[in-house]
Amino acid sequence: MPVNSSPIALVTGASRGIGRATALLLAKRGYRICINYCQDHSAARSLVSEIETLGAESLLVCANIADESAVCEMFDLLDQRWGRIDALVNNAGILHTQSTIEGLTAERINLILQTNVTGTFLCCREAVKRMAKRHGGSGGAIVNVSSAAARSGSPFEYLDYAASKGAMDTLTKGLSIEVAAEGIRVNGVRPGFIYTDMHADGGEPDRVDRIKSSLPMQRGGRPEEIAAAIVWLLSEEASYSTGSVLDLAGGK
Questions:
Q1: By its UniProt entry, which PROSITE patterns does this protein fall under (predicted)?
Q2: CA atoms within 13 A of residue 51's CA, in its CB half-sphere
Q3: From CA 52, how far away is CA 55, in angstroms rounded?
Q4: How many domains does the chain have?
Q5: Does 106 or 209 have the greater pLDDT score?
Q6: Could you say which of 31, 158, 161, 195 is catalytic?
Q7: Is it the case that residue 211 has pLDDT exceeding 90?
Q8: Lowest CB count within 10 Å: 86, 102, 129, 143, which one?
Q9: Among this protein's residues, is 31 annotated catalytic?
């Protein structure tokens, strides 16, 4: 039986929204996809079925990226199943109900940071261990999914979430320099107001419709539009791009 030479990608938080759209587009481009999720098993299984109809291979892994041991086990499982990773999309992220700073607790802030920042660091660490030339790897590409909130600060709504995404942007820049000579490219995207279920997590499912008239493009974005940019940054078409963060916020 011939060895499968298709590239290997891991997408965290892939069961919905931008992660789901990215996993599907990568499958269409011939990648083998490791689908990471944390809670919604039904949605994750549905994604596996869609990927299978495209004729692509997938590996489903339930893991909380805020848990260091769970992250290590996920990458070890991927090693055993397919081998060294080629592409990582750090998409997993959480937010809580809209609040001013007066309503924030240490518990809430730490939960946000543990997933959005620490979890992203851990996944980058494990990917670099496998991609870096000094470890016998052949390079690779990482895309961190930040947010336009990193620029706006998201006052009166999500200061903690915005701060976590600002940290992701700093990680993107610093890590891109640190691993450039190892053949690893690190870039990011900053989506704006995108139609995803995450807004319901914040207590306002129709948030995009409320805000869209204030955007220069007068509309919210679709997950597929963000996925297209992510997949481009992972591709050889973006071979000279590293340390960049692409704004995808309708001109905001």
A1: ADH_SHORT
A2: 28
A3: 5
A4: 1
A5: 106
A6: 161
A7: no
A8: 102
A9: no
Dihedral angle at the C-alpha atoms of 39, 40, 46, 52, nearest 10 degrees?
Answer: -10
Please give the Cα distance from 92 to 66 (Å, whole number). Answer: 10
Q: Is 23 within the bounds of a domain? A: yes
Decide if 3 is inside a domain: no
Integer Cα distance of 195 and 211 in angstroms: 12
Amino acid type, 89: V
CATH number at residue 27: 3.40.50.720
Residue ranges making up the domain that contains 38: 8-248
Residues in the chain: 252
Structural domain includes residue 142: yes
pLDDT in tens, 131-190: 999 999 999 999 999 999 999 999 999 999 999 999 999 999 999 999 999 999 999 999
Instruction: Identify the residue whose tokens are 């030479």.
Output: 5
For residue 140, give both structure tokens.
């690779």
Please, what's the b/e burial string for 212-251 (b: 16 or more CB within 10 A of its CB; e: otherwise)? beebeeeebbebebbbebbbbbbeeebeebbeebbbbbbe
Contact 144, 167 (CB under 8 A): no
3-state class (DSSP) for residue 169:
helix
For residue 148, tell me if it sits in a domain: yes
What the block records as the tokens of 120 is 């992203």
